[in-house]
Amino acid sequence: MALKKKPVTGMKDILPAEMQIRDYVTNQIKETYQSFGFSQIETPCVEHIENLTSKQGGDNEKLIFKILKRGEKLNLETAQSEADLVDGGLRYDLTLPLSRYYANNAASLPSPFKALQMGSVWRADRPQKGRFRQFVQCDIDILGDATPMAEIELILATTTALGKICRGETFFVRINDRNILKAMALYAGFPEEFTEQVFITLDKLDKIGMEGVQTELRENGFSEDSIERYSQLLSGIADGSDGVRRLGETLRGVLPDGVAENLAYIMDTVQEAMADDTHCRLVFDPNLVRGMGYYTGTIFEVAVEGLGYSVAGGGRYDKMIGKFTGMDTPACGFSIGFERIVGMLMDAGFTVPGSETKQAYLYEKGLSQEALAAVLKEAMEARKGGARILVAQMNKNKKFQKEQLTKEGYTEFKEFYREALKK
Amino acid sequence: MALKKKPVTGMKDILPAEMQIRDYVTNQIKETYQSFGFSQIETPCVEHIENLTSKQGGDNEKLIFKILKRGEKLNLETAQSEADLVDGGLRYDLTLPLSRYYANNAASLPSPFKALQMGSVWRADRPQKGRFRQFVQCDIDILGDATPMAEIELILATTTALGKICRGETFFVRINDRNILKAMALYAGFPEEFTEQVFITLDKLDKIGMEGVQTELRENGFSEDSIERYSQLLSGIADGSDGVRRLGETLRGVLPDGVAENLAYIMDTVQEAMADDTHCRLVFDPNLVRGMGYYTGTIFEVAVEGLGYSVAGGGRYDKMIGKFTGMDTPACGFSIGFERIVGMLMDAGFTVPGSETKQAYLYEKGLSQEALAAVLKEAMEARKGGARILVAQMNKNKKFQKEQLTKEGYTEFKEFYREALKK
What we know:
The structure is a homodimer of 423-residue chains. Chain A is of the alpha/beta class. Chain A folds into 3 domains: 12-168 and 305-351, Bira Bifunctional Protein, Domain 2 (BirA Bifunctional Protein, domain 2, 2-Layer Sandwich), CATH 3.30.930.10; 170-286, no CATH class; 358-422, 3-Layer(aba) Sandwich (Rossmann fold), CATH 3.40.50. Chain A is built from 16 helices and 14 strands. In chain A, strands 1-5-6-11-10-9-7-8 form an 8-stranded mixed beta sheet. Chain A has a 3-stranded antiparallel beta sheet with strand order 2-4-3. The longest helix of chain A has 20 residues, at 16-35. Chain A is globular, with a radius of gyration of 27 Å. The two termini of chain A are 54 Å apart. The relative contact order of chain A is 0.12.
C-alpha cells in the first residue's frame, strides 16, 4: 500500500523559502528579547493530561491532541472513557508549561525570572486558511515581579521586536485591566455573579459592534438601565493615561485602590521610555477583554495599523503558578503571534536581508576523481571563510539549471570542465 | 488538587545554561550546513500513524507516542484494538517525514534536493541517564542524487560541523556498504535468507566482542564452517580504500559490480578534499551494520576518539521515497546526535564563546516615575546598539543580588539612586 504523502490534517510542510523567513523572524525576536535580559528556556511538547485539563486553558482544553497510554498502563477492556486511555497531551500554549516549569525549577532560577520561549503548540481547531493545528508561539514572561516594571518591560520588548521585523509599520498597543472591566460592569449595575458573561459579550465588540453587544446583553436578560449606563460610561472615556485616571475617579468604591493609577503609570512610563522614532501608540481600551480565563490584572494586545487582527497579546496572571506550588507568584507575559507575522511578511513578498552570497560550483559529468577532489577542496576552503557553496554536477541543459539555481538565490557560478582541469 | 510539577516521564525542562549551549550548537550546525548549500525545512511533529507503522522504522515503531482520534472519529465502544483509537503519532525520526515531505513537495524543490532539518523526535524508550523521550536530531539529506557525491558532501559537511563544535577532538568516520555486508555473509556460506539475522548478531560486536558474536552465531545454529570462514575473511581486511578494493576482488561473484569501487572512491575523495588541519580519520569498517532496516547501500558512523559512543550516523536509503511515490528516488542522509554533543559540552564545562556583554541596571526602590522612565530610556538606547541590559530593582542585599547576577553572566553594573537623579 502506498503511504500518505500529505501532512496530517491542519499541519503543514514548510518549504525552504518560508523557512528562511521563519528563521529570520526567530532570530530577530530572540536577539531583541535577549537584549532585554530574557533567558531562553524550553519545556517538553508533551504535558501531563491533568495539567492540560485543569481549567487554566479555557476553550483550548477542548482542542487537545491527547496521547495514548503505553504498555501495561493501557487497558482497552476496562477503559470506561477517554480519560482512562490517555496520560499526556500536546501543549496548547506555552504559559501553562511555563508555570509548571517555574514551580519545578524556581530554586535554580533568578528572581524575578525573565523567560523567553519559542516553540510549537498544538490545537485541534477546525482547519481554515492561515490557521494551523501546529503553530509557533514566541512568549516572554516575567515571573516573581509584582511591580508595573514587569508590564513596562514586556511592552517595550515586544514592540521593539515587532518594530524591527515590520519596519515602517505603526503599532497600536491596547491596554486594559481585568479589575477595571469588572468595576465598570459593577458600576453599571450588572450583577456581580454575571460579570464574566458580560465580558464574553463585550469580547465580540470587534465583530458585532456596540449595537450588537447591546442587543446580545438585552437578549441575555440584562436590564436596560445597566446596558444604558454601561454604554454611557464607555462613551465618555479618553484613551490616554489621563482617561484612566479620570475613570478611576468615577469608579471609586467599586474599583480596588491603586488599579487605575497602576495602569496610568505603566502607560506614562512606556511612552516616555520609548525612543522617539518608535512607530507605536499606546491606548487605553476599556473594551479589551482577552479570552483566557487566567488573567488577573493588566491585559494588552498589539495590532498593526490597517490590519484587522492582533499580532501579539498578553497580560498578568498572578494565580496560575500557585496552582502548582500552593503559593501565588506574580506573573506577567506577552506572546507574539509568530505565524501571523510570518504570514504578513510572506504576503508582502519579503526577502531576508543581508544573507551571504550563494555560489554554485558546477562540474562536468565524468570529471576524474582527482579533479573532483580538487573542486571540493576549493569549496571547503571558501566555506571556511563563510561562503555558501553548492557543488553540483552540471546538467545537460546548463542554462535551465542556472536559471533554477538563480531562483534559489545563487548569484555566482563557477564551472569546472574535464579539459580545463586536465591541463 | 495541586497540579504536577515534574515534566512527564523521560522528558526534561531545559534551564537557561543548557539552553545557551543548545542554541550555540544549533547555530554552528546550521551555519556549517548552509555553507554547503543545504536548505532548512520542517515537517509537522505529528505524522500519520499509517506512515509511522509502515515497517520503515524498525524497532522505533514499538516506541511511538500515539495520538488519540478526536470528536466523532473516536468511538470507544466499537474499538477493538489500539489501532482503532489512534490516527497519528509523534515522529520517531526525521527521515520518514522527510521522505513523505519530498514525495509531497518534489515539484517545488530543486533536484537534487539538499535538505537540512533540526527538530525534536519522540521515542517511548525506557528512561535512563542521558537518554530522553523527547530529543533533538539534526539531519542533512541529499535526495535525487545517485552518485557518490551525495555521500562525499554529507561526510564533509558533518565532519566540518562536528569539528567546529568540538575543537581539538579527533573524529573517526567508519564507513561500510550494506551490499558488502551481505556479500561477506554469502561468501562465508551463510544462507541468503538468514543474512539479516547474521547482521543483527554482528551489530553487537561493540558490546560482546568477536568471541561473543561467534558464540551467538553458533547458538543460532549457523555452521562452524561459515563462522570460521567469516572470521578469517574479517581478520584479513585493511581499513583504507585499498582494503576495500582488495575485498572487492575477493568477493567477486557475490558482490554486485562497482560497489567496492564506489566505496573506495568516496573514501579517497573525502580524504583528499578534507583540509589538512581536519582531525578526522576515515576508515573502512566491515563490521559496521547500523540498525535501521531502510539502508540500501553506504552506511557511516562518526565517533569521537576516546568516547565509547557514536555522535553521528547515516547512510543511503534508495527505497524509502518510492514507498510514497511508487517510484524510487536515490536518497542519502547523515544525522548528528545533538543531545550527545550537548551532553559532551556540558560535561566539559563548556562556555559559549563571544556572547555579548551583559549589563545590569539596578534602580533603587521608590525611584520616581520620571526617573525610572529615564533609566529605561537609557537602556533602550544601549540595546539598540546590541547591548544586553537587564533593568531590575535593587534588592536590600545588593551584594548578594550582584553575586547572583554575576553567576548569570552579568559583568557590568550601573546603579540608579533616588538622590542622584533628583539633582
